[in-house]
């Protein structure tokens, strides 16, 4: 996405562009382990962004005040940090029994931005995203080699 960094006219336009990026055809999502910190170490997107910036990541996008979503990058590794406000999405993520690649889930998430599968490009290099919950924050990452 670093080649595609740009200003957005609205928050909705930014969210739509991010969904297009994350949900490109061929990308896959899988759940990783959840972590509970001592004393809610990562209780907000802002705290988590600061932690990743301290590890050399560059913040590309931050949405909301206080932030509810941020995207960071270091090399080819992406990090998406968010606290879902949609109760259905939160249930799917917290439950971890729902397959994040399920066509019904994809359609729901795309529909939130007025998109469909036909609006998505095929990923030039499909990525595998790992979803982890840490305290109150969800973190979606790719590996350097992905």
State the domain count.
1
For the termini, the CA-CA separation is: 13 Å
Can you give the helix content as a percent range? 25-40%
Strand order of the largest sheet: 1-5-6-4-3-2
Please give the oligomerization state of what you see: single chain
Structure annotation, total helices = 4
Tell me the radius of gyration.
Answer: 15 Å
Average pLDDT over all residues: 86
Number of strands: 6
| Beta fraction | 25-35%
Low-pLDDT segments, ≥5 res: 1-6
Which shape, going by the Cα principal axes?
A: globular
Order of helices and strands: HEHEEEHHEE
**Class from secondary-structure proportions:** alpha+beta
Task: Tell me what you see in this structure.
This protein has helices spanning 11-22, 45-54, 87-95, 103-111; strands spanning 28-31, 58-64, 67-74, 77-82, 128-134, 137-141. Helix content is 27%, strand content 25%. A 6-stranded mixed beta sheet has the order 1-5-6-4-3-2, covered by helices on one side. The chain has one domain. The chain is of the alpha+beta class and 146 residues long. The chain has 4 helices and 6 strands. The longest helix is centred in the N-terminal third of the chain and has 12 residues, at 11-22. The model is unreliable at 1-6 (pLDDT under 50).
Précis, in short:
The chain is an alpha+beta fold. The protein has one domain. It has 4 helices and 6 strands.
């Amino acid at each position: 996405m670093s080649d595609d960094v740009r200003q957005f006219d609205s928050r909705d336009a930014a969210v739509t562009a991010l969904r297009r990026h994350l949900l490109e055809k061929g990308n896959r999502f899988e759940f990783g382990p959840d972590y509970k910190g001592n004393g809610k170490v990562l209780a907000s997107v802002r705290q988590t962004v600061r932690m990743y910036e301290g590890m050399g990541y560059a913040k590309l996008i931050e949405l909301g005040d206080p932030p509810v979503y941020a995207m960071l990058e270091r090399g080819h590794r992406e990090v998406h940090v968010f606290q879902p406000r949609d109760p259905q999405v939160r249930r799917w993520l917290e439950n971890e029994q729902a397959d994040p690649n399920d066509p019904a889930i994809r359609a729901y998430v795309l529909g939130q931005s007025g998109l469909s599968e036909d609006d998505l490009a095929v990923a030039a290099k499909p990525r595998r995203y790992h979803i982890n919950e840490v305290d109150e924050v969800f973190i979606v990452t790719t590996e350097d080699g992905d």
